[in-house]
Amino acid sequence: MVAIIDYDAGNIKSVEKAIQALGKEVILTRDPEEILKASHVILPGVGAFGDAMKRLQEYQLIPVIKQVIEKKIPFLGICLGLQLLFESSEESPGVEGLGILKGKIKRIPEAEGLKIPHIGWNALSFPKNGKLFHNLEEMSYVYFVHSYYLEAGEDIVTAACEYGTYIHASVEKENVFACQFHPEKSSDVGLGIIKNFLEITGE
What we know:
The chain is built from six helices and eleven strands. It has helices at residues 12-21, 32-37, 49-58, 62-70, 80-84, 187-198, and strands at residues 2-5, 26-29, 40-43, 75-78, 103-107, 118-123, 141-146, 148-152, 157-162, 166-173, 176-179. The radius of gyration is 15 Å and the shape is globular.
């Protein structure tokens, strides 16, 4: 069973449908017991960093997320779910993130002819081999919707793209995986990424 963490963030239903399309059972929940029983856990989301952290606190989901990481259950953050894994974001000064991974969330810099938010398809480069991209070709296109981007340590970055700056588009550390883009909206490439995640086994 795959658990999607429900904290009233947008874009949850499309993630649920993508998992169902791959023939997997999925539950949308904020029940700690259900989350900890899952084989895989996903933290999706679109919206503001500060609001999302407030909801995770209100629903008392921060301890269970940290337990999932400690138990080595494969965990995937998507879009805002990626950003929340880090320490802080320029979007919400003074708000602490989950601090599970080290890196900064920064606003995409303004540039002539560059639209922010970044909405659309971009090709991925693979700085290092990542489990999410097994059997996928470099320069595959995926779908982004964001105004803020990740700048992390190179040791955890498995995919990147260019949009006015060099964007760390996906990271991987032990059982923690995250994508700034939306695999659930990225056609066959995206389904391949989700399938690869669902084939990762916990320790």
